[in-house]
Specification:
Layout (H helix, E strand, L loop, with lengths): L6 E9 L5 H11 L3 E13 L2 E6 L3 H14 L2 E6 L5 H13 L5 E3 L17 H8 L5 E2 L3 H8 L6 H15 L2 E5 L7 E7 L3 E8 L10 H14 L4 H17 L2 E2 L5 E2 L13 E7 L1
Parallel strand pairs: 1-2, 1-4, 4-5, 5-6, 6-7
Antiparallel strand pairs: 2-3, 7-8, 8-9, 9-12, 10-11
Helix pairs in contact: 1-7, 2-3, 3-4, 5-6, 7-8
Length: 279
Amino acid sequence: MDRHQLAVLTVAGSDSGGNAGIQADIRAFHVFGLHACTVVTALTAQNPYGVRAVMTPEPAFVARQLDAVLEEYAIAAAKTGMLANAGVIEAVADGFKRHPGLRLVVDPVMVATSGAKLLEDDAIGAMCSRMLPLAALATPNLPEASVILGRDVRTMEDMESAAREIHARFGCAALVKGGHHADNVASDVLFDGDRAIWLSTPAVEAPLSTHGTGCSLSAAIAASLAKGRPLPEAVAEGKAYVYEAIRTGVRVGARATVLGTPSGPVDPACVTLGRVTSL
């Protein structure tokens, strides 16, 4: 019997409601059959309707968590989510530099869906200068891409241009997430340094929950990379995972709803490959 299991790491905030952040990441890792390691960068008091409070540990404690994991576990890939402030970002970036070679997915979490700020203003520069250059892939949504580049990113043309510019500035592949640009598809664009690839999934009619989809997507992509998938395939598998999680959402309270948990390997066949543009 093979008693080895791949491990993957999430460096992110905790969601007390269990639908985003580290909790969403662990759920994704387990669906992909991986052991989940965690570094907690923030504690939040939240539910799907808002973030009520945030508590951030000292950067030195974050660094201790990161070293403790990376020194002993064979981490096949990692992702970052909410990093809260410049001190935590510096600690995380320094930690990954002490342990080079990981395929890292950086979700530059800045604002919650509810509108709550999850990254302090003075930390945006640190995110761009310290974390993005370490990434194999960055996964900004439209508001985050706009902040990173200092200009509006709204249209599909803006998205492709933004993905290319993020790669040019920071050296990482970029997946710019567009959400629902049309009534029946959710379209994102990946620029991997060679080509721009558009990927779309069907929209789920009247979904019970979309809270935590960004966290879930970056976690699923990291999990797929950990299993050896090439980047475009990992992104397609990540999108398929999120589509299935939205499709199978459930009620867990009088008003509370959460993403579902896919019961087995996800099928990327639901992901449509759109136009491919060369460099």
